[in-house]
Design goal:
The complex is a heterodimer of chains A (about 270) and B (about 260).
Chain A: H1 30-52, E1 57-58, E2 66-67, E3 74-76, E4 84-89, H2 97-100, H3 102-109, H4 112-121, H5 152-173, E5 175-176, E6 180-181, H6 185-202, H7 205-213, H8 222-236, H9 238-261
Helix pairs in contact in A: 1-4, 1-9, 3-5, 5-6, 6-9, 7-8
Chain B: E1 3-12, E2 15-24, H1 31-41, E3 61-64, E4 67-70, E5 84-87, E6 94-96, E7 99-100, H2 103-110, H3 129-136, H4 146-150, H5 152-155, H6 167-177, E8 184-185, H7 187-192, H8 204-208, H9 215-231, H10 234-242, E9 248-249, H11 250-254
Parallel strand pairs in B: 1-5, 8-9
Antiparallel strand pairs in B: 1-2, 3-4, 3-5, 6-7
Helix pairs in contact in B: 6-9
Classes of the chains: A mainly alpha (about 270), B alpha/beta (about 260).
Chain lengths: ~270, ~260
């Protein structure tokens, strides 16, 4: 008979080794410092960009159709002409970015990879492996608010919608008003951005689980097994896609912003 | 060749301190070789566990320069210049010198509900290669318990030991949950009693695993996602209701006769 044992775990007992935070001699602090630097820079930049509410669209006057990923879909009623999505939220006068950024932000905030990174770098829980936790008590993700990390898959679903919209934006950018089909640096930037966001989403652990990982028997679900086989090597590179897509989405906004403001020219390749 | 300085923790439950040994450096040696030479020449009473000297038994797990390592697999020439510190695994109570009491892990092992296959069909059980392959990685575990040692949930918070199984046993739970013939459902158990939610996926267990098992990506996160299926996903719940799919809980399985 299978049973759940009631074996009690003996607590306490003197531990060996010196009572110090760590005996590591390598530069374990580099990784948290780099993580804090990049994420803080991104948070500051994206907050600033979200509140700007201008220079997020390059339109007909410049014979381009480039929209910043921070502002797509542009749902506010006062969006710049040409940048509007199919419908608008009447009465919304704040930056349209504030309506949509919660979804990609939530996706990254609850992402398993980013959790690892910010728990280490910002919360020091722990700052690095075999380096003492900075907190005297610890409940992990068992209580509110961190138990909310379990809704990651819903942000994943929302992320797919945004990926589809940004892909549409990238395809649309190849048709330049008054000129016709053409490839510019801006179209390449938007396309690479959409590609990296797809790679980040499809390499997600929740995606891998939902596509095939959750089944008990691969033999009984050959199509899901195929999906799982495709996504597994992609999942191994999730960290790379997490960083590259984060940096590139900010760069895309910078690029569109500088072109829209007239500081940069969007060069036409052919 | 030059000499090397080894700072080895000596002591027991009553207390201890570092003892420094200066010993000749020999080419190609691993930390275990040096510890054995210290035993042979300077400290015959130095206690350490070892067995296979091939990285397959997991007995010689200690902390070298503050990181969990197998002494038999850590080459001296891969360590930075300067004194090398060797200490017992920090998470477990010390017995003597480099030897710790790892019985916490055996207590956790006893708690794992066993495989519960369905009644034997007329032509016997059959498992296919693709299903075998997924769990094969988890079978590589040599139970060195370095993943348990490095996990901050119990390394830095002794009180969590009562309700946290640790990465080594999450591998075991994942292996059973992914077994195509298993009818037992351990999702409630890992969530409520084994402390899966305490893991904050810092991946240290994966970093130290000498068998390179992707503990976090292939065992812990899939387990967390299974718990989400069962408790935090109304769409999955609706899907189960529509398909009238139910699983046996660990508690129910406990009162079912074995096949």
């Amino acid at each position: 008979m299978t049973s759940v044992s009631e074996t009690k775990v003996q607590l306490g007992g003197t531990r060996g080794g010196p009572d110090v935070a760590t005996l590591r001699q390598d530069r374990w602090w580099i990784q948290p410092v780099v993580t804090v630097s990049i994420l803080t820079a991104f948070i500051i930049y994206s907050t600033w960009a979200a509140f700007q509410n201008k220079n997020y669209y390059v339109g007909v006057q410049m014979h381009r159709d480039l929209i910043s990923p921070f502002y797509s879909p542009c749902l506010a009623s006062d969006c710049v002409a040409g940048s509007k999505a199919g419908f608008a939220l009447s009465g919304w006068t704040l930056s349209p970015a504030l309506l949509i950024l919660i979804f990609p932000l939530g996706f990254r905030l609850t992402c398993y990879y980013y959790r690892r990174s910010y728990y280490r770098a910002f919360w020091w829980s722990p700052p690095a492996c075999a380096v003492a936790d900075a907190h005297s008590s610890y409940s992990g993700e068992t209580r509110f608010p961190l138990i909310m990390q379990n809704i990651h898959r819903y942000f994943f679903y929302a992320g797919l919608v945004f990926n589809a919209l940004l892909t549409y934006d990238a395809i649309r950018a190849f048709h330049q008003p008054g000129i016709g089909f053409g490839v510019t640096v801006g179209t390449i930037v938007l396309t690479v951005n959409a590609g990296l966001l797809w790679a980040y989403s499809l390499s997600c652990h929740a995606c891998r689980h939902l596509c095939g990982g959750q089944v008990k028997s691969f033999k009984a679900h050959p199509i899901r097994y195929r999906f799982w086989k495709i996504l597994t090597p992609l999942n191994a590179k999730h960290m790379n896609f997490a960083w590259s897509s984060l940096i590139f989405v900010a760069f895309t906004d910078v690029y569109v912003r500088l072109v829209a403001s007239g500081a940069w020219t969007d060069f036409r390749l052919f | 060749m030059s000499d090397i300085t080894m700072r080895v923790w000596r002591g027991d439950a009553e207390g201890g301190d570092f003892e420094t040994y200066t010993i000749e450096r020999n080419e190609g040696e691993v930390v275990l070789d040096v510890i054995h030479r210290i035993q042979a020449t300077e400290a015959p009473d130095l206690a350490c566990r070892w067995n296979c000297k091939a990285g397959k038994c997991g007995s010689c797990a200690v902390e070298v320069n503050g990181k969990p390592r197998l002494m038999c697999m850590t080459r001296m020439d891969t360590l930075p210049e300067g004194p090398v510190t060797v200490t017992p695994m920090k998470t477990f109570p010390i017995i003597r010198d480099l030897v710790t009491d790892v019985s916490f892990n055996y207590a956790q092992a006893e708690k794992v509900p066993a495989l519960l296959p369905p009644p034997m069909p007329a032509d016997g059980y059959r498992i296919y290669q693709e299903d075998v392959e997924r769990a094969q990685e988890f079978r590589k575990c040599i139970e060195c318990f370095m993943c348990q040692d490095v996990c901050h949930v119990i390394r830095d918070h002794e009180d969590n030991k009562q309700h946290y199984a640790g990465p080594r046993f999450f591998i075991r739970y994942a292996e059973l949950e992914m077994h195509p013939l298993d009818t037992n459902d351990r999702r409630d158990l890992v969530r409520e009693d084994m402390g899966l939610g305490y893991c904050n996926i810092t991946k240290c267990c994966t970093e130290v695993c000498p068998e390179h098992i992707k503990i976090t990506d292939n065992a812990i996160i899939p387990l967390k996602e299974r718990v989400v299926d069962a408790h935090y996903d109304p769409v999955a719940w609706l899907g189960r209701k529509i398909r009238r799919k139910t699983k046996t809980s660990a508690a129910e399985a406990a009162v079912q006769p074995a096949p």
